[in-house]
Design a protein that fits this description.
Layout lengths: L21 E2 L7 E2 L4 E3 L2 E3 L6 E6 L4 E7 L3 H16 L8 H17 L1 H12 L3 H22 L7 E2 L5 E9 L2 E5 L5 H14 L3 E5 L6 H12 L7 E4 L3 H9 L6 E5 L2 H13 L5 E4 L5 E4 L5 H13 L11 E5 H17 L18 H16 L3 E4 L14 E4 L6 H4 L6 E7 L2 H8 L4 E2 L1 E5 L3 H10 L4 E4 L14 E2 L2 E2 L12 E9 L7
Parallel strand pairs: 9-10, 9-12, 10-11, 12-13, 14-15, 14-20, 15-18, 17-18, 20-21
Antiparallel strand pairs: 1-2, 3-4, 5-6, 7-8, 8-24, 13-23, 16-17, 19-22
The structure holds adenosine-5'-diphosphate.
Pfam families: Aldedh
GO molecular function, one term: aldehyde dehydrogenase (NAD+) activity
Function: Possesses activity on acetaldehyde and glycolaldehyde in vitro.
Length: about 525
């Protein structure tokens, strides 16, 4: 047993020390330990020796310098994943053994909620209470959901014509390349690695350059749970270098991407120009939230507010076009304004804070540009519209009324705390208008009328319709987009097929009478 190397179940990977690390300013007992790349079960420097800073969105200060992977590191990671797939124990061990590793990982996630939630909030800026009480429980839940699937994946026996015994078997697809975004770093990690590992794949995961910390720590825990070396490799780095190298690598068998529609087009092209690896894409959205005339306005205001402002408005599913029936419109906008004014914005580590800073200066500037564009195009700004304070990337909860579909703020994904309210008169009209974007990720419908709910949920061209609820992300519910919001589905049973090949085995039968 070599000192400092990964040595099997329950051992930590090398390159990690609990005695050093960068202390969290709020909770100094929590430190950043894992900053290198995780390749073949070891934390290692990048081939170039380069690092990049990751920032605290509360202040813009550097938290840590993280190893910067590029094409050479992706190649090292893919080689490790290839070897682990072709020669290692993971795809060949019993599905039950694989599921036990995932169950142990989920237990470790629960045990380390405080560290993981702190890293997540520190690196991303989301409220700590959200990280610890909402997201971490969802993360261990989805890992357990896929742990439960591992030994329930099987094929069929098919009664084909002719003297043949026909079976299908489901094999892991191979090396999966996974590229994740910064808005839900750990949740996206779990959505990606859970199903891929349950199916027996090996992985190279590239985290987002804005939020590299939590994936490295979670991957360390996964090795402590018994994951063999090389099965999950984590490369921190930038999109056009590390991300593009992964999408175009000839030895990656499948690509799963979550991010913007613009980048989705790039990775799809890279995948098709290299080895035609199948690609699943979970992309942007401009989701309508439709408040019907029978709505209880107080409840509708609260849910529409949550649908847009949750996670600083940085959700692909954000209900970013609030359609309100004319009968309740005026009451709705007064109450929506009051609710936005009441929203508590501040240091995400403070109890009771609903909204932290935006992720970085780039997103912060982009959101402020959209707010200016809303004003210039004639929408009415009823509250907010500016930054909050002079340090960090905080933005006032902002509400526009009199928004029209041809305005940029009604067409583009703003990814910030900017609510756009549009008035409508009848059902056909709102269906047409709600569907009039290039996106089709999700929609919210607020009504007590069964016919209205049924009609809208069938007419809207989106992957998820939430009726009198929003952002319900149970592990078993498939999620994905129509139109330019994506290809394929994540979560639920549907996601397993992304990581499986179906093989048909046809055997000639000597005695067809017994088929
Ligand atoms: P955003 O604009 O919200 O940051 P992106 O779609 O650019 O969203 O980023 C999502 C993920 O895609 C990140 O991990 C990022 O590094 C990666 N990415 C960005 N550009 C590319 C690219 N050209 N090729 C591959 N991955 C990329």
């Amino acid at each position: 047993m070599l000192p400092g190397r990964f040595c099997g179940v329950g051992r930590v990977v090398s390159g990690y020390s609990t005695s050093t690390g960068i202390e969290n300013p709020i909770n100094p007992s929590i430190k950043v330990h894992c900053t290198q790349l995780l390749i073949n079960g070891n934390f290692v420097d990048s081939a170039s020796g380069k690092t990049f800073p990751t920032y605290d969105p509360r202040t813009g200060d550097v938290i840590a310098h993280v190893a910067e992977g590029d094409a050479e590191d992706i190649d090292r990671a893919v080689c490790a994943a290839r070897k682990a797939f072709d020669e290692g124990p993971w795809p060949k061990m019993t599905a039950y053994e694989r599921s036990k590793v995932l169950f142990r990982f989920a237990d470790l996630l629960d045990k380390h909620i405080e560290e993981l939630a702190t890293l997540e909030t520190w690196d991303n800026g989301k409220p700590y209470e959200q990280s610890a009480k909402i997201e971490l429980p969802m993360i261990s839940r989805i890992i357990r959901y896929y742990a439960g699937w591992a030994d329930k994946i099987h094929g069929l026996t098919i009664p084909a014509d002719g003297p043949h015994l026909v079976q299908t078997i489901h094999e892991p697809i191979g090396v999966a390349g996974q590229i994740i975004p910064w808005n839900f770093p750990l949740l996206m990690f779990a959505w990606k690695v859970g199903p891929a590992l349950a199916c027996g794949c090996t992985i190279v995961l590239k985290s987002a350059e804005q939020t590299p910390l939590s994936a490295l720590y979670a991957a360390k825990l996964l090795h402590e749970a018994g994951l063999p070396p090389g099965v999950l490799n984590v490369v921190s780095g930038f999109g056009p270098t590390a991300g593009a190298a992964l999408a175009s690598h000839m030895d990656v068998d499948k690509l799963a991407f979550t991010g913007s529609s613009e980048t989705g087009k790039i990775v799809l092209e890279l995948a098709s120009k290299s080895n035609l690896k199948p690609v699943t894409l979970e992309l942007g959205g401009k989701s309508p939230f439709i408040v019907c005339k029978d709505a209880d306005v107080d409840k509708a205001v609260e849910l529409a507010h949550f649908a847009l402002f949750f996670n600083q408005g940085q959700c692909c599913s954000a209900g970013s076009r609030t359609y309100v029936h004319e009968d309740v419109h005026d009451e709705f906008i007064e109450k929506a304004k009051a609710r936005a004014l009441k929203r508590s914005v501040g240091d995400p580590f403070k109890a009771g804070v609903e909204q932290g800073p935006q992720i970085d200066s780039e997103q912060f500037e982009k959101i402020l540009r959209y707010i200016r564009s809303g004003i210039e195009s004639g929408a009415t700004l009823i509250t907010g519209g500016d930054r909050l304070g002079s340090k960090g990337f905080y933005i006032q909860p902002t509400v526009f009324t009199n928004v029209k579909e041809d305005m940029l703020i009604a067409q583009d994904e703003i990814f910030g705390p900017v609510q756009s309210i549009l008035k409508f008169r009848d059902m056909d009209e709102v269906i047409r208008r709600a569907n009039s974007t290039r996106y089709g990720l999700a929609a919210g419908v607020f009504t007590n009328d069964l016919d209205t709910a049924n009609t809208l949920s069938r007419a809207l061209k989106v992957g998820t319709v939430w009726i009198n609820c929003y952002d319900v992300f149970d592990a078993a519910i498939p999620f994905g987009g129509y139109k330019m919001s994506g290809q394929g589905r994540e979560k639920g049973v549907h996601c397993l097929s992304n990581y499986l090949q179906v093989k048909a085995i046809v055997a000639s039968l000597k005695n067809p009478a017994w088929i």
